[in-house]
Design goal:
The chain has nine helices and no strands. The chain is mostly helical and about 180 residues long. The chain has two domains: about 40 residues, no CATH class; about 110 residues, AhpD-like, CATH 1.20.1290.10.
Amino acid sequence: MKAFIDPPKSIPFYLKIGIWIAGKVTGRDLLPARLLAWYPKVAISSGILEALVAHKDANLNRRILKLVRLQTSFCVACPFCIDMNYHDYADYGITREELLVLQDRAGMEEVKTFSLREKLALEYARIISSRTLTFPPDFIEKLKAEFNEREIVILASTAAQVNYWARLLQALGVPSAGFSAQCEL
């Protein structure tokens, strides 16, 4: 499967450095990085966004951030995002049963392994990824009771970052990169 467009034949040297870094980090030659070379400003700003978004935090562990990334990826049905965020889920202590919840193939109440904070973070990611954003006041109160202001900003920006990539990559027709080819989705 191909994207809607091909990467440019000539890529500026300074973007080649970013593409090389992305390749070192992911172990793949990523098509999105090359496609964004058509418009260097968006390539640079997207790279900065990716580099600076939270991947770990003192209060929000890597698992909860991975759950938010996965939940958002499934909510927006982005093949590349699902593939990118799915491939190493077990390294974060995420179970197959929990994945079914994220995929909306099982109810949250059926899986007892999510903490209250994780459940709220997942619901927040679902709301952020909805077509129409509506934040029920009672949910916001629960969220504020479990997370401080900084944590809420990190959760919101993590889900928004995946939404950004999903919309951009889907608009360019970018297929999955094969990270989870051996995994059953």
